[in-house]
Every structure is written in C-alpha cells, then in structure tokens.
Amino acid sequence: MRYRVSHSTRYDYAAPVSLCHNEARLTPRRLTWQLPEPTRLTVTPVPAVLQTRRDVFGNEVNYFSVQEIHQSLTVTAETCLSTGPRPQPPAVGAWEAVRATSRERVACRPYQLDSPFVARHAALRDFAAISFTPGRPLLEAAAELNQRIFEGFLYDPGYTTLATPVLDVLEARRGVCQDFAHLMVGCLRSLGLAARYVSGYLETRPPPGQPRLVGADASHAWSALYLPSWGWLEFDPTNGTLPGERHLITGWGRDYGDVPPLKGVMSGGGSHALEVAVDVEPLAVDPA
C-alpha cells in the first residue's frame, strides 16, 4: 500500500504568545515493512530554531522554537510512504517461559516496569489472567485478551481524557484507542511481560458509495508484545486485530507520554482553542 499522510494542528490563543518551545513526533518510522519518504514539516509562524534528533526509543523528534509574538500556531507534517505485510511471528511456547526469558533482557526492562500513564496493578493482572491460564501458549493468550478488550469495551470519545487512569477505563469498560492500548499494555506488564505503546495512524474507509472525507482520519494507538529472539508483535485492541498494512507507525514508547504528536511550553497565551486534522490518503501504486 502507498499513502500520503497529513497531520495538521492549529492553536488559537486568547492572548499573544511571546515565546514557545515545542517538540513534534510526526515522522513515520523506517521499518522493513514501512518505507517513508522525507517528511515535510511546516510551522507558522516560521520558527527561529528547528532541529532534529532521535529520542531514547529511536523516534524522530523535531524541536522548534518560535521567538516572535504570535496569537496562533500551525504545525503541519506531510509524508508519503509505502507499507507491506508485517513479518509473521514464529510459534511460541507457554507464556510463563516467555516471561522468564524477557526478564533476562535489559532492553525489555523499561517496557516491564511502571510508567507515568501505565502502572501495574492486581486488578489488571486478574483481568488478564482469564486469558493467561497456566501453560497456555503466549500468542493464543494474547490474541484472546486483545479480542476481549475489543468485544467487552465501548468506544466512547466523550468519556476519557489524557489523564484518565487505566483502572477507571477497566471499571467503566469504555474509552478510546489510547485507553485500550494502555489497558492492554498494563495487563501484559502486570503479568511480568514486556509490552509497549505504539502511536501512528490507521487508514479509515468510508461506507460503500460514500466519498472520503479529507481530514476525517485521526491518530491511532495500539500495543506490542515482546517475543524473545524475534521482536515485537503488535495488537490493536480497539479493533480486535493484528495491525497490518493500513496501520502506519510514527513511534513507540512506554506509554502515550513518550510519543505525543506535539508538546511544548510557551510564555503568555492564556487559554486556547485547538483544531487537529489528520488525513490518510491511499495513493495509486506505480506498477514499475
């Protein structure tokens, strides 16, 4: 598949802003199954400083500083990329054996411990234990947990915020993709497994006969589970699926706090209005 992705964020401030410093994580990652072209980042007003670096998780971060007085800020990232099928995981044994092996890998530790948005808890462990019965194959148990979240939780954009605790989502049985990704990550970590949060986009398709609505797509989030000697297997609990060619990855980390599309600090401004528009446009593939 081939796509053009556009992610635009606009802030309108109640009062002038004299200075702002920001970080954008909007560049798709280069992977064996995902090949992005260079991202074009447009910031208005034009920043005085614009630099690129890699964070500790390997995500590309664009830092910029606007040092003139302004009352609105627009940040737009545009990328064309091609995607292919994900690698298929090997057969994996009992989940307890995988847990023991994962604990021996230093690189897995950040994804096994508590993080700001996801803390291990007995309630999460008990919820996961329904699927993770003793001796059950890891992939079979994880797939069932993924499906249980999909079938048992209501997608409700009006219920949660960025600050809603995972335990509240578990109790209310509702939330959005970010909440469900955090929930699955928390369940896996509470069992002692290594799990991370994945951020990106998902191509949405209109009903038959209906046109695409430009800007109607949104950021998406899902989870990934570490398989020793193979890598990370992704799960999308919001849709009860394994991510495929329509899932486009921008970054990953311990939780949402490691991969927000845009964050920053400013001097002045007061309150603000926020407008976000995301468009994931399928492109024709050149047969050549």
TrEMBL record:
It comes from the Bacteria. Residues 169-239 form the Transglutaminase-like domain. InterPro entries: Bac_transglu_N, Papain-like_cys_pep_sf, Transglutaminase-like. It holds the Pfam family Transglut_core. SUPFAM superfamilies: Cysteine proteinases (SSF54001). PANTHER family: BLR2979 PROTEIN, BLR5614 PROTEIN-RELATED. This is Transglutaminase family protein. It comes from Salinicola endophyticus.
